């Protein structure tokens, strides 16, 4: 069964600093992986997705993630944090083509300090 | 702009009083999902429709029902809300094609408060 684990429920960075949000997956088949962002009282917005093409995936708002099979990781990074990046971030893996189910990690709250 | 719309954004109901949350989409996607998200937790899938085919998650309580009268609309009915049902309810859509899963597009959510 597929699953994802997000390391660190809270991450705090200074504005302009590197953002690194960690996600490790477990999957018996080649995974399809996603990062979503959720702002307070809003729905989820797709940042980027990995679907077995390029291992380095670029997303919106300057975010990118690298799929590393050897480490079963799909960490999210951004070179320079902005105050507007403060939000909840969810890593997710696609369950299977039969169920259409996204399996989410527990989420990481990103705090950006001025 | 094509989008997923949820109404209302905030819903207050009384303990045991049936409530219906609505979702509509202009994306013409054939799959619609309902998720429950409690405070500081990840979204949890309740059920989804693939066209008219209803797919219930095994651990979704019977208290939760859904209807999809047409492609554009999907409703979540909570027959007898309990205090534990207070949460954000998220609707999402997707349009699978080929072997790779398509992105799920989320609405803004409806926050349900049970008094």
Protein model, in words:
- The complex is a heterodimer of chains A (114) and B (115).
- In chain A, 36% of the residues are buried.
- By secondary structure, chain A is mainly β.
- In chain A, strands 2, 4, 5, 9, 10 and 11 form a six-stranded mixed β-sheet that branches. In chain A, strands 1-3-8-7-6 form a five-stranded antiparallel β-sheet, with no helix packed on it.
- Chain B is globular.
- The termini of chain B are far apart.
- Chains A and B meet through strand 5 of A and strand 5, strand 9 and strand 10 of B.
Layout: helices, strands, pairs:
The complex is a heterodimer of chains A (114) and B (115).
Chain A: E1 3-7, E2 10-14, E3 19-26, E4 33-38, E5 44-50, E6 56-58, E7 64-68, E8 73-78, E9 87-94, E10 102-104, E11 108-113
Parallel strand pairs in A: 2-11
Antiparallel strand pairs in A: 1-3, 3-8, 4-5, 4-9, 6-7, 7-8, 9-10, 9-11
Chain B: E1 4-7, E2 10-13, E3 19-25, E4 31-37, E5 44-50, E6 53-56, E7 64-67, E8 73-78, E9 87-94, E10 105-106, E11 110-114
Parallel strand pairs in B: 2-11
Antiparallel strand pairs in B: 1-3, 3-8, 4-5, 4-9, 5-6, 7-8, 9-10, 9-11
What's the tally of helices of chain A? 0
Helices and strands of chain B, in order, run as EEEEEEEEEEE
How many beta-strand elements of chain B?
A: 11
**SSE class of chain A:** mainly beta
- Average the pLDDT over all residues of chain A and give the rounded result: 91
Shape of chain B: globular
| Main beta-sheet annotation of chain A | 6 strands, mixed
Spans of chain A of at least 5 consecutive residues whose pLDDT stays below 50 are: none
Discrete helix count of chain B: 0
Q: What is the share of helical residues of chain A?
A: under 10%
Helix content of chain B: under 10%
Task: Tell me the strand percentage band of chain B.
Answer: over 45%
Mean pLDDT of chain B: 92
Order of helices and strands of chain A: EEEEEEEEEEE
Greatest interface? A-B, 23 and 29 residues
C-alpha Rg of chain B (nearest Å) = 14 Å
Q: Ends of chain B: how far apart?
A: 36 Å
Approximate shape of chain A = globular
